[in-house]
Amino acid sequence: MTETLIKNADVILTMDDARRELKGADILIKDAVIAAVGQGLSTQGQTVDASGAIATPGLVNTHHHLYQTLTRAVPGAQDALLFGWLQRLYPIWARFGPEEMFVSAQVGLAELALSGCTLTSDHLYLYPNGSRLDDTIAAAQEVGLRFHATRGAMSIGESDGGLPPDSLVEDENAILQDSIRVIDAFHDPNPGAMVRVGVAPCSPFSVSRDLMRDAAILARDKGVMMHTHLAENDEDIAYSLEKFGCRPGQYAEDLGWTGDDVWHAHCVKLDGQEIDLFARSRTGVAHCPCSNCRLGSGIAPVRAMRDAGVNVGLGVDGSASNDIGNLIGEARQTMLLQRVQNGADAMSAREALEIATRGGAQVLGRDDCGQIAVGMRADIALWDAQTVENAGSWDPAALVLAGPQKTRDLFVEGKQVVSDGQMTTVNLGAMIRRQNDLARKLLD
Ligand SMILES: [Zn+2]
To answer: pTM of the entire structure?
Structure first.
């Protein structure tokens, strides 16, 4: 048995059921699980000095398109609304292959890890030139993050009145067959799973009603979760009303897309009835505040969702629409946007951090992650409390109100993935060079 003792943290923000905050306390990890939390713990194994640091559960990212780290700040997509933005980027993405998928995923995962994230989902919905979901799973296994890959899909191309070019859409039967293949190959339903697989048609406007329904049936047959984009902006609502004759919440409910095994990205435009539907059905929401700002989509009604009892987690969203994959930054942005909408007391820093940790774990169906408590998986972030950003702070809420924006140390399943601000699992410099070479090639 391997033991690691995280010793003498300034404070541990446990996010446990009592939301305990423990000063001058330790965390004992045995193998991959938290074995004890408290003061004066000891070990025969390795000790990590956490003095001068704030400990939190690892942050949980509930929405991303990792491949997009290769298309940040693309001219022509910098200032467009959602549909125009997609039409600018689709032809570029159509030139990706397995290497682009692997390298961009590695870079995106490292960026997340350095911002305190230990568990992320990814939504990969295009598979040009032989790309496979396997490419991103291989990347996550090397970087060492807990990974929920979702097998996305698009099936309605331009010639059928859809938005994506025909070259990026797939046959619906092939989509379902490949979903079965990747679930059988990679999905681990057990506690402590490092890889899970979900089923995730891209959005109601890029696949058929039949595929939405069949995907839900397949997911439930296989016992995996379901994910898609929903109610992202006004164009999205108008499309739903025009093409389906109903709002997105109704469309989702009619096709089996509500329940505690479903989470929807964005939901900026959910109305009161839809919020009640999501609360009643335990349907989760991936809130992506920076992406919503970047694309001018609006402010998601997170305060109303939380008050109604909706499960909400955070997502950085793809790096073509953010363009930063920094999860602690999203916690701050969540807090700020709710205050813009509802006043300065609308959301505390602690609530934002709770959404970023145990909120996200709940959305992804992980009752073994998201808090620092005995029996939980050892997914832990240590934040330097002595940086220039938080110098002079009076309270650990400074982590969200002030900074730092990068984690000092990060543990996933008990293994140290970030040490003193550096990735331990991969050569970050080499990854970045390879990524920039690929970006330059796409530009030519
Ligand atoms: Zn997205």
So the answer is: 0.98
